[in-house]
Task: inverse folding
């Protein structure tokens, strides 16, 4: 079976220690977490982990089973890239001089549909949201001019198919 | 704390009393029906021990000689009684000494609650004396764990701990309680936990899957059942028997499933796995439908997965969805508690007999009997064998003893040859293979089933890993019967060295102390046997004793356990010699 990119979405209670429990499942199987994001979800008091891995479907099934088994996990799903809408966010911190001295910088900002978040005396910050390749492309374009700081977020994703968490929670409650 | 508030609760006890966290812990244990705990005191758990002193008429605390012993005793207690075992320890080294027992209980699905003391809240993260991150350390080896830092959390968290430990697929839970939470007062009321929002321990049995399973079983020509501990944990022994008798399907067991079906049942065809019986291993690759019930296709059961039952349709009954398709791809999966699933399956099954197919098992058994079993249990050579010792226990106990075995050759021999006529009788460390398990586990097993004969079968290696627990047997006069099968070697590793490492016996030769004198030092009646002529009468004497009894049997030093599936080989390549 060949490796592929999978996005695992985990709906869970918001508990101290659960991240440790979930990351241990990957550690034990020697599978690297390529990106991780934790946020609130569409349901009040339910958290959502979005985890990206590059592995085989057999392993991703195994991992999702083990994650779902954790007491504080409500439900876990996995999807390939075609089954989700996803993006990442990045911030670039650049020297202010460049904004005025290098006309091309403004073109790069425009062409990449990115935004200037702040301009200070010494630096300015650009934010860019999109797919990993788009962010990488912009990074490559800016790199020759000098990037003071760069950071990229984990993937966030919503599935094209429905995730029936609310009804699932109700089912659990009535079991 | 959101999750705790979200519990569905019943049996509300409205009486509120103002007590310390430490006293609240005792009341929680009593409310959960606990009357026996194993543990070891220390600084960070002292307030709880002070309360144990006051409540000693209601709650017995057994001081093991090492915290690992406390966990194994709690496991032994849980495995014979079906109740939750409880172990207690202090912070730091007390807590880390629980880890092996937690891992063992996790992989063997044993319900256990461990309570550890922790440094006060304000010292957390300061590298305080005896501070250790036991939550971090125990996370991969617990079903659930939680650190309590406020006294008022105690009743809800302990209620949740017991509920999680015993429900669904059982497992160990650790609750770490900071010392300030033990000292501080709370308004105490206890509400038993009956549900946790995100946790679904009993998946509903799917009728369509059941029908699909029944169709496969009814049309099978060579069906074969393999059952595991799920049958015992789900209390489905009667249902299993009905399924087997109605369909005439030969049934084999994993080492944790063994006592679920009477050893003498005509359709009981023995043990699967690395040192299991010849017929069920070989015929795994000849059956047309393999029905797995409450077992998890461990690698010691399946051998090489690429050549495991490839010709068969696989039906898998299990309570844990994560086990389905984990190792062996399943054709029909029936999720749910074994009792409920099998109960619903029985009416869908046709009455049948598979006499010819069953005869194939019998023929293969005869081959195994003449090449292996007869020499093991009725040897003619001079030296004693482990197998004949087990056989004598069968005879003298009428197949009714609880057998607690350690890990190694003697364990495989005990599981192969011990006979059982009731459930919850074979206590061994199956998944983790924890040497040192048996002596403390036998203490727990005896205390969990005082009316039953409990015999610990231990090798000379494993015995010395937890030998200090003889102190508990002496102090509390726990009438367990201990047999050390002494071959002066770490026998199983030596066997592998002989077969696969050209007899390079690296660190497997043991120079042993005088075990009889050690037991005598603990004032335990002891005897050593090295002659066949003394064996029968000594075992009878041992079983007749009302007190604890230690028996060392000097056995052949370089015997091997057969049959054997070499590591990584297929079940059909099982070797008889």
Result:
């Amino acid at each position: 079976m060949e490796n592929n990119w999978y996005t695992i979405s985990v709906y869970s209670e918001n508990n101290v220690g659960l991240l440790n429990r979930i990351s241990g499942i990957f550690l034990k199987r020697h599978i690297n977490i390529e990106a991780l994001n934790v946020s609130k979800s569409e349901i009040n008091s339910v958290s959502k982990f979005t985890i990206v891995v590059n592995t085989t479907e057999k392993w991703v099934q195994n991992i999702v089973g083990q994650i779902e088994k954790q007491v504080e996990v409500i439900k876990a799903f996995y999807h390939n890239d075609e089954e989700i809408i996803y993006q990442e966010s990045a911030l670039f911190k650049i020297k202010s001089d460049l904004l005025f001295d290098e006309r091309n910088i403004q073109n790069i900002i425009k062409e990449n549909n990115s935004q200037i978040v702040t301009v200070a005396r010494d630096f300015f910050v650009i934010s860019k949201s999109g797919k990993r390749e788009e962010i990488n492309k912009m990074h490559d374009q800016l790199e020759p001019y000098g990037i003071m700081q760069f950071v990229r977020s984990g993937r966030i994703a919503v599935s094209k198919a429905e995730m029936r968490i609310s009804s699932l929670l109700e089912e659990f409650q009535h079991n | 704390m959101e999750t705790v508030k979200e519990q569905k609760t019943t049996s509300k006890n409205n009486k509120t009393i103002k007590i310390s966290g430490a006293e609240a812990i005792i009341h929680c244990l009593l409310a959960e029906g606990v009357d026996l705990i194993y543990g070891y005191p220390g600084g960070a758990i002292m307030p709880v021990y002070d309360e144990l002193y006051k409540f000693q008429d209601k709650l017995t605390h057994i001081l093991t000689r090492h915290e690992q012993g406390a966990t194994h005793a709690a496991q032994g207690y849980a495995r014979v009684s079906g109740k939750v075992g409880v172990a207690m320890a202090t912070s730091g080294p007390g807590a880390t000494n629980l880890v092996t027992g937690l891992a063992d209980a996790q992989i063997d699905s044993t319900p256990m609650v461990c309570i550890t003391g922790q440094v006060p809240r304000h010292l957390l993260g300061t590298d305080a004396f005896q501070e250790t991150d036991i939550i971090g350390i125990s996370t991969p080896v617990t079903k659930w764990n939680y650190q309590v830092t406020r006294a008022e959390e105690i009743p809800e968290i302990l209620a949740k701990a017991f509920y999680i430990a015993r429900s669904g697929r059982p497992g160990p839970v650790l609750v770490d309680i900071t010392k300030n939470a033990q000292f501080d007062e709370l308004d105490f009321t206890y509400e038993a936990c009956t549900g946790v929002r995100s946790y679904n321990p009993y998946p509903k049995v799917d009728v369509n899957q059941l029908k699909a399973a029944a169709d496969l079983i009814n049309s099978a020509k060579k069906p074969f059942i393999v059952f595991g501990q799920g049958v015992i944990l789900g209390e489905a022994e009667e249902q299993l028997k009905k399924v087997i008798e109605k369909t005439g399907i030969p049934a084999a067991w994993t080492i944790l499933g063994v006592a679920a079906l009477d050893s003498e049942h005509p359709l009981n065809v023995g043990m699967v796995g690395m040192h299991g019986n010849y017929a069920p291993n070989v015929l795994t690759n000849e059956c047309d439908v393999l029905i797995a019930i409450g077992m998890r296709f461990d690698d010691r059961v399946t051998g090489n997965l690429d050549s495991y039952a490839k010709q068969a349709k696989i039906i898998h009954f299990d309570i844990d969805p994560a086990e389905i398709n984990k190792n062996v791809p399943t054709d029909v999966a029936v999720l749910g508690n074994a009792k409920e699933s099998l109960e619903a399956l029985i009416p869908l099954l046709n009455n049948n007999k598979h006499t010819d197919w069953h005869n194939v098992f019998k023929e293969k058994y005869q081959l195994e009997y003449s090449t292996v079993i007869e020499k093991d249990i009725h040897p003619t050579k001079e030296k004693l064998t482990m197998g004949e010792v087990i056989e004598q226990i069968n005879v003298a106990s009428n197949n009714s003893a609880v057998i607690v075995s350690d890990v190694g050759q003697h364990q495989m021999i005990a599981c192969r040859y011990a006979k059982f006529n009731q459930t919850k009788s074979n206590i061994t460390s199956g998944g983790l293979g924890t040497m040192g398990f048996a002596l403390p586990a036998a203490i727990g097993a005896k205390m969990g089933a005082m009316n039953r004969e409990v015999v610990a079968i231990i090798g000379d290696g494993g015995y010395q890993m937890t030998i200090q627990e003889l102190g508990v047997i002496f102090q509390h006069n726990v009438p367990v019967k201990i047999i050390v099968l002494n071959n002066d070697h770490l026998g199983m590793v030596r066997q592998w060295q002989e077969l696969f490492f050209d007899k390079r016996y690296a660190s497997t030769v043991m120079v042993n102390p005088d075990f009889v004198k050690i037991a005598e030092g603990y004032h335990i009646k002891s005897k050593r046997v090295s002659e066949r002529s003394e064996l029968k009468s000594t075992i009878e004497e041992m079983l007749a004793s009302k007190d604890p009894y230690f028996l060392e049997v000097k056995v052949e030093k370089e015997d091997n356990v057969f049959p054997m599936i070499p590591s990584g080989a297929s079940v059909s390549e099982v070797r008889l010699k």
In short: DSSP finds 24 helices and 20 strands in chain B.
